[in-house]
Q: What sequence folds into this?
């Protein structure tokens, strides 16, 4: 069985670690001191919702079937596949702490599940392009005040080599995640998946944060869907300038959206919108950036908008809508 290390014990970190360990994998979690303390006090990872499990935590050497907790990157197993889960703004520091202390062996590889594209450049710069695997996930969830992680949907996860060839490490890791109940596909076009997800993130985060309309009600506002379409068109043009075509994936069928045109996408969203006056107490579906905005947490504005605008400028591709979205989101970012 492959060995995994998860950097960051937040929503996705705990969901991946708990699920992988419960399926018998060897998993080490590198947590911040404050979250390690909370996990030690609870004695276990608690996942609720779409994944229900209580996974015991131990300190010390990793063993199959339990989560080994550490706050010291030097103790990460040398042959692990390391999944980085800090938010975009915390990622450079997390990468640097691991790079400075970890001694990776020959089979070691790294990936990041953050929204955006820059994560892979940062990982490749620190650990080498050959160790860096592309990853995308739409597993969804959030952390409760008491430390439990509520998983709202298992979503879909994709792993792939940047060389666009299949590899044993990707196949083995994807199979382990799948067997652990996290639907995962090994792909040979990870850039297409990354940029298709990027289109969706650039479009949805801007329209939901700037309008404060939940993603489940977006379909009631054709003008917001038009704004979304404009943003995905610009992002897709930046990908196209790099020779990367768009694809259709669960939750972000970008190729189809581009073919449908704005009116078609507006009709598609309208059909799927929840009623304007929902049942009292029914949960709202909000994008992660919208949730961060409401909670007063820093937004991943630079890792997504700042980075994509810089790429557009380097490639000479016009991106006026994304640039405007970047500036407006920068201004309302609680972390500015
Ligand atoms: N949640 C979702 O539904 C979802 C879905 C798809 C993609 N994503 C993306 O996935 C990423 C993670 O999201 P999330 O919701 O899991 O965030 P999160 O709950 O805030 O988890 C991030 C974790 O990383 C930890 N961390 C930060 N710096 C660290 C360091 N230097 N060393 C070790 N751990 C460190 C944080 O520590 P503390 O515990 O001290 O805060 C936190 O536990 C984001 O980029 C997000 O956009 C999220």
A:
């Amino acid at each position: 069985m492959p060995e995994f290390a998860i950097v960051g014990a937040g929503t996705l970190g705990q969901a991946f670690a708990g699920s992988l360990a419960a399926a018998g994998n060897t998993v080490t979690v590198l947590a911040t001191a404050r979250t390690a303390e909370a996990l030690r006090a609870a004695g276990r990872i608690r996942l609720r919702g779409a994944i229900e499990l209580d996974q015991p935590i131990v300190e010390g050497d990793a063993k199959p079937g339990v989560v080994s907790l550490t706050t010291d990157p030097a103790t990460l197993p040398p042959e692990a596949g390391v999944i980085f889960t800090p938010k975009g703004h915390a990622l450079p520091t997390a990468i640097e702490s691991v790079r400075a202390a970890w001694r990776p062996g020959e089979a070691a590889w790294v990936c990041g599940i953050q929204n955006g594209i820059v994560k892979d450049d940062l990982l490749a710069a620190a650990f080498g392009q050959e160790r860096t695997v592309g990853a995308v996930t739409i597993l969804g969830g959030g952390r409760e005040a008491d430390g439990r992680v509520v998983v709202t949907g298992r979503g879909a996860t994709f792993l792939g080599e940047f060389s666009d060839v299949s590899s044993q490490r990707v196949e083995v890791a994807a199979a382990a995640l799948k067997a652990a109940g996290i639907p995962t596909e090994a792909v040979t076009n990870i850039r297409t998946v990354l940029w298709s997800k990027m289109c969706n993130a650039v479009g949805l985060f801007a329209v939901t944060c700037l309008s404060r309309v939940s993603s489940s009600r977006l379909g009631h506002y054709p003008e917001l869907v038009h704004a979304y379409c404009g943003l995905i068109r610009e992002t897709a043009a930046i990908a196209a300038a790099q020779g990367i075509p768009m694809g259709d994936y669960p939750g972000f069928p970008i190729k189809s959206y581009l073919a449908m045109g704005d009116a078609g996408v507006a009709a598609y969203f309208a059909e799927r919108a929840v009623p304007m006056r929902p049942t009292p107490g029914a949960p709202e579906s909000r994008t992660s950036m919208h949730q961060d905005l409401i909670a007063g947490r820093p937004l991943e504005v630079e890792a997504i908008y700042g980075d994509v605008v810089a790429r557009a400028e380097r490639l000479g591709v016009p991106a006026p809508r994304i640039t405007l979205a970047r500036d407006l989101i920068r201004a309302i970012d609680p972390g500015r």
Notes: Residues 103 and 285 are 41 Å apart (CA to CA). The first strand starts at residue 3 and ends at 7. The domain at 195-332 is CATH 1.10.1040.10 (N-(1-d-carboxylethyl)-l-norvaline Dehydrogenase; domain 2). Residues 190-211 form the longest helix (22 residues).
